[in-house]
Structure prediction request, 843 residues.
Amino acid sequence: MSQKTGQQVYNLTLKIHRYDPDTHRSWIQEYRLEAGRILRFVDLFRKINEEQDATLAWNSSCEHGQCGTCSVKVNGKSLLACELLVENAVQYFNTTTFNIEPLNIAPVVRDLLVDLEKAYERLDKVRPYIIRPAPALSPGEEYPISPHELEGYVNATRCINCFCCASACISSHRTFLGPHAMLAAIIRVMDPREQEKQERLKILYSDQGVYRCHSSRACSFVCPKQIDVAHFIALAKEGGITRKR
Amino acid sequence: MSKSLKIASTLQCDLLIIGAGGAGLRCAAEVLEKRPETSVIAITKGSHPQKSHTSTAQGGLAAVDPKDPADKTIYHMFDTWKGSDCTADQGVVRKITEAAWEQILWLETRGMHFSRDHNGKLSKRTFGGHTLNFGESSAYRAVFEADRTGKGIMDTCWGESLKRNISFINQSIATELLFKDNQCIGCLVFKQKTGELVRVLSRATVLATGGSGQVFKVTTNCRQNTGDGLTLILQAGLPIMDPEAVQFHPTGIVGPGILASETLRSVGGILRNKELEPFMERYAPKMKELAPRDLVARAIVSEIREGRGVLNPDHRLEHVWIDLRHLPDVVHEKQIPEVTGFFKKYLNIDPKHELCPVHPSNHYHMGGIPTNASGEILDRSQKVIAGLFAVGECAAASFHGFNRLGTNSILELITMGKFAADRVLDYFNSVSDNLPEAKGHLTLSRFSQYLEAGGDDNIGKIRDALRTLMTDKVSIFRTEAGLLQTMETLKELKDRADKTALSSKSLRMNQELFQHWELDNLLSVSMIIARAALDRRESRGAHYREDFPARKDEFNYHTLVSMTQFGEVEMAKREVDMSIFNEKGEYYEKFGMIERKY
Ligand SMILES: Cc1cc2nc3c(=O)[nH]c(=O)nc-3n(C[C@H](O)[C@H](O)[C@H](O)COP(=O)(O)OP(=O)(O)OC[C@H]3O[C@@H](n4cnc5c(N)ncnc54)[C@H](O)[C@@H]3O)c2cc1C
Ligand code: SF4
Ligand code: SF4
Prediction:
């Protein structure tokens, strides 16, 4: 028996936002289902496909919080559906009715599935790789980076591009490239192996960059990887990312 | 509606990568680095390359650092050979282990965020089966990026490909390889978002579609791993090698199937059955929980089979417990925080106070598309198929033989990806610039069949039945009776699938449509696994026959299985390459038919 709520089975109502690309029709469909306490929301979607409606479209890949494919909004909160257990959802939102929408970060392809290719275009603009690598200090050996130096930005490298932060960020829907795109740029400003700092700083401080951020911290609040995204952005605003540590 | 399914357009490229995971994009990045004018198209089934399975690999990647005074490449070769239960191909083992460190440096200089030691050099950790001096002591051989090494590889290979202007076609499936005069000239691609069929013509094609773990009910593998690449090859009349070689991890976490790592047992975790009996004492009185992986996995399944398992009502799965309650707080907090975190996150269980449910989990497919040491695909008579390559988990070169060592898979991705790229570049010099034409015929008829079928079964339910069957009969324990029965049931499931109507006939992002296609692939892969397991009347590496529990010399070969029509299987053999042994150089005797005992 669940120690948290004392319940074994829940009667849930999922109100899922649907979209049909063939007819361009949008509607909200209600599914009622019985679910065990530790089923995850991806399991619920699968259950709907198997028992009620095979046409409901949604997406996932690793289903253990490492790839960021199954992001959706549940009762307004952007999260990974593979990490949300029924029991926790009931407790957190204090209801058994859940309103489920696709992330508002790119056009919807169908139902809960958004066009991630489009969403990634903004990330591609910050060039998420080393543009001009520093030559090895001694040939045939790795470039030395002290654990202390790595510590400065390693948390930002944990981002899985789930776009939860981008969807929660009020600035993200205009020209801002998005909190996680800022992280990708900040990483390479702080990474000693990147020589091309000027172009990076230009993007970061452009009208699509960090000054779009209103410091609401919504990004840090929703990040399923618990990355303090807003901290890195604040650091970039005050010039802290180019300072030698 | 099905009438509107037709080949909408034709794209052309020099290099086509089917499967943009770690292996596929390592290959693409190398080709683009060496020959920037190459036009490369990479297809991925997921919504983006970063969502590939490679991103989830945790532990590390093995490579002998030439600066390490204690470790030697020959030890890594030996460990791999021994781990493979003497069925790896020694030429490939040598080639990969010798190139390993150079490929680590490739990743490092292109921005992978490896964990560092206090000197700023790459940190190293130990891993099961990796030893110094031919088994004497543990080797510190695995470099890593915290607990997200695969993500580091994926991000780096994706970034490098993006930097050099690769074209991606995401959320799309390669459905059929195209051939002209025994040469592969591209494939047909179904773009899920638009519902269009596109023909891609290429001078060289690399298959890198990853694993097939979705064949089993409990698996660590991602949802995309449905063995598509293997089915593309079978469809083309080509063989698959060693499909019966499937690896299981003893302790997967009930629910998501992810690993509860060996560490839980090495820090003192105790396995218990329904009666809370610490049952390992009966199976391995001395080693108990620390017995080798396969022995522990068999013990767990035996307990469940004999009625001492516990049913998880939510996931409808029988399991045993791992008990961590007696471990001191400091162990929970310092030594096993990640795994304890998984139990908390996915089961709402606090391992300090509650028992944790575990079940063996499918983990890795050693078998795959047979290639040589350059990733070129071989037919039944070992002849190279022009223009067609395979790398990564879908391929079998064979670096892992019948059992893969931890950290050797992602090493294989980056080395074989590079070797295939070298060969592709050579191949470009020998093949003309003109792309021949071919139509392809299978996809249209298969998809039309899906769209026209009538009947009220459900794809998801058939898939669940298939995965339960494979877990029950073709995983940890295999018997002749069980395998025969499985093959019969698979035929029934295939009949059911053929008759299942789709709820919607739309072509655009109709997930039921492509899941039907995936189900057909799962059925095919299951069939060849079961059949190969039936013929291998011995136990070797991860393949365990309850009725033939020992390894036998008469089975010292690789299985080759072909199947163009479902259920009509043809078997053949490929010799195990024992070149290191046969050359009789230093330490050659370590590379004979040795025992896999630790
Ligand atoms: C939990 C876990 C931990 C692991 N840890 C380690 C470790 O520490 N060390 C180690 O060495 N190994 C590890 N492994 C194994 C390793 O991660 C995999 O073997 C490896 O990542 C496979 O890489 P790949 O490039 O071959 O395939 P993938 O990364 O799976 O990529 C396959 C690509 O092909 C695409 N695709 C599939 N079908 C089609 C199709 N029909 N059309 C078009 N595209 C298609 C997919 O979308 C994907 O992009 C681990 C595995 C798991 C599950
Ligand atoms: S802190 Fe800035 S980046 Fe983060 S959500 Fe708020 S406005 Fe967006
Ligand atoms: S920063 Fe966090 S929320 Fe944003 S994309 Fe990355 S992992 Fe997701």
Summary: The two ends of chain A are 51 Å apart (CA to CA). Chain A touches chain B through 72 residues (CB under 8 Å). The pocket of iron/sulfur cluster (ligand 2) is lined by residues A 168-171, 179, 213-219, 229-230, 233 (CB under 6 Å).
